[in-house]
Amino acid sequence: MRDLAALPVAVDAMGGDHSPGEIVAGAKRASEELGIEVVLVGPPELVGDTLGLELVACTEVIAMDEDPAGGVRRKKDSSLVIAAELVRDNKACAMVSAGNTGATMGAALLRMGRIKGVHRPCIATPLPRPGRSPGVLVDAGANAECTASMLVQFAQMASAFSTARFGTPSPSVGLLSIGEEPSKGTPLVKETHEILKDPSAGVNFAGNVEGRDLLGSSFDVVVTDGFTGNVALKTMEGTLRFLMGELFSVFGTNDETRAATDVLMPHLAPLAASLDPESAGGAMLLGLEGVCIISHGSSSATAMMNAISVGHDLATAGITESLRQAIHS
Amino acid sequence: MRDLAALPVAVDAMGGDHSPGEIVAGAKRASEELGIEVVLVGPPELVGDTLGLELVACTEVIAMDEDPAGGVRRKKDSSLVIAAELVRDNKACAMVSAGNTGATMGAALLRMGRIKGVHRPCIATPLPRPGRSPGVLVDAGANAECTASMLVQFAQMASAFSTARFGTPSPSVGLLSIGEEPSKGTPLVKETHEILKDPSAGVNFAGNVEGRDLLGSSFDVVVTDGFTGNVALKTMEGTLRFLMGELFSVFGTNDETRAATDVLMPHLAPLAASLDPESAGGAMLLGLEGVCIISHGSSSATAMMNAISVGHDLATAGITESLRQAIHS
Lengths: 329, 329
Fold this sequence. Notes:
11-stranded mixed β-sheet; 2 domains; 47% helix; 11 strands; homodimer
């Protein structure tokens, strides 16, 4: 895939809560520190200083809270749509955005198109597992409603993604449910369980997984519909953030507790980092004829650099071809 | 409701991972420390020492991992079924079990029956909110599949429960979804949103709530189907447990960190307690002609005492009548 390695990563300079400042800074760091070629996309007057990076100019921006479908349809010269076109036209190996997730999906789907045979693209998100490579949760929110054949494809594609992204040889797949028994769950879950456990599904199915085992999961891939996956992921994030907030409030109680915290902090910092969604390098949209990385809306320059790196590495490793094979095997 | 206050709480002595020891000990403490009359239910040879408490003898036990429907159907002289019959026959004001959740629901539903007009009973679980009274999550797992009219009744009943249990005057109700906009979510969520926002639903509807806001929620009641609710609740529990485990591992790194932890612990203990499901007093099955409290499977004596206290207080406060009114208003 030498041709892809020679192509830059297209970065939506206007996506995310801290755009364009942190986005451009992250792109610059990817270029300088990692040697990855980057091209920014956005309206020049809004992007401002590009820090010497190339800018593909466009005239529109889809806002974070804008209706995704309408935004993509109306704003054909928006940074998201143009970034997707750069990938489609073989002018970029991947696109990265921290912007409106729905609009990113819409732009990527409309401009790059689906891999042949894929029912619906889905979002694969890293699940933190301190001390080990992350697990993968799929679908993290692209499809609120799913069929069993969609879930089976999600499992197939997320397995290929786990191998390409984290080097897991034969990723174990868990199906998110409300009990380990195959008889538990919705009709959708029961039907999917039956298909996945058949070797012809082509995945290393390990059974149902419950919500309590998501964080630090023993499963390499956790499959669920986009509604449940989004709720579970946000519940995990919210619980972590809530507990961190309460802890820091305790740490700051008085001089004594602050001194004790100083002793613990060098040991707590790696734990906090391993649970930080920013360190994970973003989520990937699986099932498209091109690489699209969706970074957290609150992405810092570091998060963007990581996401750009992930996009570049996956593209040059031939993830799209791996996904094609996963679907057709 | 003087008649109910005079009745004992029926306690399934054989339910839970630590039965009968912790269960009987918790019942004894409820009796001694709180002055609540208690009657144990179980096979005498398995229960053993009742610590002087009354025992209603039966011959069977439904195991924690037994098929709920089959267990309730076959084991008509099980501790769960007999406990439910004591409530039905006005010999107990409430039943409490830390056993097989599905079988507890089945026994309570079959023996007590539904409140007239209730489509399906549901599980209301406390959501920790340190520094404030807990929120209520409903349905926490009774119904994997729901209709909009079921969810609306859950909201109505959980609002009445929030008022009876925590004294919240006009509980705010949030609908669990994947975005705040009414247009987000599954068709079920969108339909429910439309009904709940109409004043005729009789609840204080405050809009959609996301998973990230479950813990420490600003909503007094969070409504969802039993599949999503169960996944979200277990994800929250698992995330808390995982992070606590990682923290304690850091705390024990060396002598220095252990000394620092000793300084922080008096301040951390109240936080941990406020997040502990054991302190919440268990979940309640809403929609039945009688009070049924489901305590955590891992319940200690303290958790059982709390659950017995909650069951007694709700029964004597007339929760069943409040639920009837919530449904018919």
